[in-house]
Amino acid sequence: xxxxxxxxxxxxxxxxxxxxxxxxxxxxxxxxxxxxxxxxxxxxxxxxxxxxxxxxxxxxxxxxxxxxxxxxxxxxxxxxxxxxxxxxxxxxxxxxxxxxxxxxxxxxxxxxxxxxxxxxxxxxxxxxxxxxxxxxxxxxxxxxxxxxxxxxxxxxxxxxxxxxxxxxxxxxxxxxxxxxxxxxxxxxxxxxxxxxxxxxxxxxxxxxxxxxxxxxxxxxxxxxxxxxxxxxxxxxxxxxxxxxxxxxxxxxxxxxxxxxxxxxxxxxxxxxxxxxxxxxxxxxxxxxxxxxxxxxxxxxxxxxxxxxxxxxxxxxxxxxxxxxxxxxxxxxxxxxxxx
Length: 339
Description:
By secondary structure, this protein is mainly beta. It is built from one helix and 25 strands. The chain has one helix spanning 2-16, and strands spanning 52-57, 63-70, 76-82, 87-91, 97-102, 106-111, 117-121, 132-136, 142-147, 157-160, 166-170, 173-177, 183-187, 204-209, 215-219, 226-230, 236-240, 253-258, 264-268, 273-277, 283-288, 298-306, 312-318, 323-328, 334-338. The strands form six sheets. The chain has a five-stranded antiparallel β-sheet with strand order 18-19-20-21-25, with no helix packed on it. Strand 23 (312-318) and strand 24 (323-328) form a beta hairpin. The protein is globular, with a radius of gyration of 19 Å. It starts with a helix and ends with a strand. Residues 1-46 have low confidence and may be disordered.
């Protein structure tokens, strides 16, 4: 009975999380992976294989590294989901486990400045587990918890804001929640809608509050995703989307980061590429980490997080069944397009 529940937990987690296998649609049915748009390739010389600033390969196959955060001390905070021993773990540079909170199927985890850990818990496999955003102390005690009503509202991502509120990504909505559980800002319909409708989000997976007060939202979509910047008044002030006739564009964006110079880095699941986009939403360059797979093939990419240094932290499942978290150095990636 335990194994049945755990197996159900895996399927629910993968269905509700931002990471959907490349050969499955959003409801789990068979569907072809969207093709990357045709684009003029302008390649430059690069190392035969990308250089890695961090590399962790789990020595297990019964769960997978679904999300990771690189900590200031060089450790990795990893969300493991699967049929056995799921949880959030911290590993050092040698891969040794130094902290863990087990028994939850987490979609994201963020180490806070106070030493606590903020977790987006999917709530799988169901009762008595509930979807929630929860803050744990280093000794595993619950410091704060925001409970959601059902698995249909399972949080995909959460981050703590400078004002003490928490930004939460839900299946069709981005929500800012105060410490006393009040929704103080929200964007999205909160349910499926028609494309083009004001506030429409198809499949949001990330949201980050910018220094200007706006919110950068990554909507992975179904066949064509987009990244949009939304003002406090819920107006779209900036957007990057699919390819133009002469420029590359997004297929399934996974994450985005606004840099100090006003440009934005956006990673794409299907193309294994990080795009650099200007303030007008135009692509300036596209760099691929795909050569990394030549020596270590990956069956699915769960996360690709750009960093301020121009690197990309990825988490993927290898053909061996083991999962890998690697930080790819940006300057070692192949430039596949440049303006």
